[in-house]
Design goal:
about 375 residues, 15 helices, binds zinc ion, two-stranded antiparallel sheet, TIM Barrel, single chain, alpha/beta
């Protein structure tokens, strides 16, 4: 797929998009959900492409919304819910726009574009946005820590034996980071915070190492999460809000009582902070490896009406309510590639070339 990929992106997708072939792939009753993770603030310079790979520029975001409005039918979260409950039909080629994590730039950069384009977006936020000083996503903080640190051996006691790594090249740091994300996800948020502080000490970073991110206005918009006041502004602007766990762990790594708390309490706490019911959940990370049948069952039992993965493409009415696929929009997607994903063509092709992707689930009834 690695060799085929540039050919698809540069030749095949643009041809198929231009002829209208991609658009015709979507049946009358099909729909698609797209996921954003924020819009890069003006003036921001990325320290490392992998760190910002899920955020798009303001221009791309506007172009993609205009494209969806002109060729597809953008629907609201409420239309989606009513359809899901078998109470209505949708326009053909329906697309729901969602955004995960609740970074501050969702309010400062995304909302003005959504308002200009008259599109609503379902925002999934974590428990951090129920406070006035929410800080950063812990796994982004860890990434920045590893990027900033000199080459140094890291040894963290994670209970079942110490985890040892030597940093070095940026690629090594990326794989150390992902191993640590999975390992640290196995702890509750207090213990995870303690282990991160331990890692900071071992990496010989001063206590105020993250000051540039916490104090510079552009960096704040990129890295800080929405405060409760900002979240309420987003909701007051007519944007529906869903839950994205309390602390954004890889849920499948957690003991059951902690996973349950992450899923169920994020719903009740968010609902009481906003003063309205919360019916939707997006699994943090949301890839098949991070979500098992256990999490699907917990999401169903804790009172949500549906829950979203972060993989997949278009689907029809038979979709399992607690494993709804979404197209993960990335920074490097051209409009043609975006359409190849939205229309389901990319997913069908991937299935042909690589076999079906495991999606937990099907066992969970709606
Ligand atoms: Zn997320």
């Amino acid at each position: 797929m690695r060799l085929v990929s540039p050919l698809l992106k540069r030749v095949l997708y643009p041809c198929l998009a231009q002829t209208g072939f991609l658009r015709r792939q979507m049946g009358e009753d099909d729909l698609c959900v797209v996921t954003y993770h924020g819009v890069l603030p003006r003036g921001y310079r990325s320290p490392h492409a992998a760190l910002d790979g899920a955020l798009v520029t303001a221009d791309s975001f506007r172009r993609q919304l205009r494209f969806l409005k002109s060729r597809y039918n953008v629907i609201s979260a409420q239309q989606f819910l009513t359809w899901r409950q078998n109470e209505s039909t949708l326009p053909p080629r329906a697309v729901l726009v969602t955004s995960d994590d609740g970074l501050r730039n969702t309010l400062t950069e995304m909302l003005p574009i959504l308002q200009e384009e008259e599109v609503t977006c379902l925002f999934f936020v974590t428990g951090a946005s129920l406070w006035e000083k929410p800080g950063m996503l812990w796994y982004e903080e860890l990434y920045l820590m590893l990027l900033t640190a000199p080459d140094w051996a890291l040894s963290l006691d994670l209970g079942a034996g110490a985890m040892q790594s030597r940093l070095g090249h940026v690629k090594t740091r990326h794989s150390v980071w992902w191993s640590l994300v999975k390992a640290l996800s196995g702890f509750d948020s207090d213990k995870r915070r303690e282990l991160l502080e331990n890692a900071r000490g071992q990496l010989r970073l001063p206590e105020n190492w993250n000051q540039p991110y916490m104090e510079d206005p552009v960096q704040q918009r990129r890295f800080l999460l929405l405060s409760l006041t900002e979240l309420r502004q987003l909701a007051a602007a007519g944007m529906p809000i869903g839950a994205h766990s309390l602390s954004h762990p890889v849920l499948s790594q957690l003991p059951s009582p902690v996973a349950w708390k992450e899923i169920a309490e994020s719903r009740s706490a968010l609902a009481s902070a906003l003063g309205e019911p919360v019916w939707s959940f997006a699994y943090p990370f949301g890839d098949p490896a991070g979500v098992s049948e256990r999490e699907l069952e917990m999401a169903a039992r804790s009172g949500y009406k549906c829950a979203f993965l972060n993989r997949g493409g278009r689907f029809g009415r038979g979709v399992p309510a607690f494993a709804i696929p979404r197209v993960h929009v990335t920074a490097d997607m051209s409009l043609a590639e975006f359409e190849a994903h939205v229309s389901g063509f990319q997913q069908a092709l991937r299935r042909r070339l690589m076999g079906p992707e495991f999606i937990p689930a099907a066992a969970v009834h709606s």
